[in-house]
Amino acid sequence: MTPSLFWYLQEFARPVWLKKFFFARTAPLTTPPLFRDFPEPTGKPCQHVLFCMMVCPAPGAIDVVLDEDGWKPRIHKGHCIRCGLCVEACPNGVLTSGRVLATLQEQGTSLEVSFRIAIDRDLCTGCGNCATACPVNKEIDAQLGAGGHSSNEEVIMRVHDGDVRVLHEDKCTGCKTCENSCPTRAIQIARILEGKQQNPGGVSP
Amino acid sequence: MKRTVDVNIPLGPIHPCFKEPARVKCETKGERVIAAEVELGYMKKGIERIMKGRPWQEVMFLAERVCGICSVIHNMVYIEAMEQISGIPVPPRAAYLRVVANELDRMQSHMLANFSYCYTIEHETLGMYLLDCREQVMDLLERLTGARVTCAYIIPGGVRCDIHEEDLSFMLESLTRIESDLLRYTGMFESGPMIALRSRGVGILTPEAALQAHAVGPTARASGIAVDRRTQHPTYMKLGFATVVRHDCDNYARIMLRFDELFQSIRLIRTCFTGLPTGVIRGGGTCKAGEIRYSGEAPRGELTYVIKTDEYGRVVEIEIQSPSIMNIEACCHSMIIGADSIADVTSAFVSADPCIACTER
């Protein structure tokens, strides 16, 4: 006995199936709760500390540029690996990414950035390019000449007796301009990062 | 005596069964494999050269990009090596959280390894179940660290972020669900007659051959050799870690050993959560000069970092010794030889879980 047309319709045109076919639903695309997104500005004014640039592990992912209303960090999304180190290193909370900034403030964690200037005495020719190129030196002593000589005691480094002397290492912003201007690669800036926590906000089950 | 070789069959570098490119050249007589050779070098990145001269915050990200499957352990071993060099103490809470991240990573890696074995022996149903389970583990890892892979969770003197209360209860709930799912899948694998036909007695790696080829990790442990770097790790010693060993020496033993280790990882994570100490998660401390050889247990075996740093904590010299190269040697010298068919070559090769990205770096 061959089944009737009615049987076929009943069998294959089930309301549930038809509904699923015509109103197919996929799960909505949601952002996971702890997703680390690209860094976004929070709106706080950038103080031009440049720590974000100095700790960034991806070359060319972040730079700080001067806009008409002040300094602004700029993220290059093709280079950024969304590690969140810039958010952690910024002392002023200029950037945020996902829950990183909120977690930092809640748990009191921070990354402390400091810079050390290492000069290889064997390679240094005492040309003074580093002292002349240094942007901090330029601000402190506008009279700093091509030889790197300065009578100002407040500069980061100066040439004295044919040798570069580092006076104030703590003023270094880690920009590496001196490193790039050195003809013998004698000067090197080390970027030192230290993870710290003020108040333990730990939970335990 | 001259050997008679019928056909020299190359498998790979592009092969549906292999996750990563490697070429296995099998000399066959009829269907029987009488010799095999593994050819590597299809994905050299030169990552150790890039690492040189960089501070830890840059090398850390490069280290975890050595391997996409076991990224947390690369991060952990590198950072712990730097801590040993500089004498940085780790807060107990951070040490426990590190173990949690590491064990979650090991779970997802083992599940992926077992998936690819199931896929190789054409049991795709179980493979897809395992992949579904792996996604849940990846979600847990994201809950803890903020990223599924390349988490950048572990830094010298601690970890990046603490665990929230709601995340902790969510993770404990999920672990219960994952454990019950895994029990079912393990039962499917353990008692499946077709799986047993394809796995039992195939790819035999005797303990002597394993010792000779310096097999490490689950491959050695399935041959009855109790090697595990976790037994020497201070945090794991506190948690009462004991090595899992099987004595069957075949594909079946290797896969079952990974299932055993999954349950062991779940137990370890639970122990961590119940005994989670309070306190800080970052103790501070800067990296200093020194030289060290430090090992940790990756999902595939012993992972060693040889690091030399200068006075500001920058990496001067670095060498990475990854586990898979030893397992690949063991594979091509013992497991594949005498395989009854070419189909068993891929399954034996995959059961050793070779990670080519780690091997070639």
Backbone shape of chain A: elongated
Poorly predicted spans of chain B: none
The H/E string of chain B reads EEEHHHHHEEHHHHHHEEEHHH
Mean pLDDT metric of chain B: 88
Structural category of chain A is alpha+beta
Number of helices of chain B: 14
Protein described:
The complex is a heterodimer of chains A (205) and B (361). Chain A starts with a helix and ends in an 8-residue tail after the last strand. Chain A contains eight helices and eight strands. In chain A, a hairpin with a 2-residue loop joins strand 6 (157-160) and strand 7. Among the domains of chain A are: 40-110, 2-Layer Sandwich (Alpha-Beta Plaits); 118-188, Alpha-Beta Plaits. Helix content of chain A is 24%, strand content 22%. A three-stranded antiparallel β-sheet of chain B has the order 1-2-3. In chain B, strands 6-7-8 form a three-stranded antiparallel β-sheet. In chain B, helix 2 (56-64) runs antiparallel to helix 3 (71-86) and helix 3 (71-86) packs antiparallel against helix 4 (92-120). Helices cover 50% and strands 14% of the residues of chain B. Chain B is globular. The chains are: A alpha+beta (205), B alpha+beta (361). Chain A binds chain B through residues 32-36, 55, 57-58, 81-85, 88, 98-100, 103-104, 107, 109, 112, 116, 118, 190-197, 200-205, and chain B through 55-58, 60-62, 93, 139, 142-143, 145-147, 150, 152, 155-158, 160-165, 167-169, 172, 273-274, 276-287, 311-314.
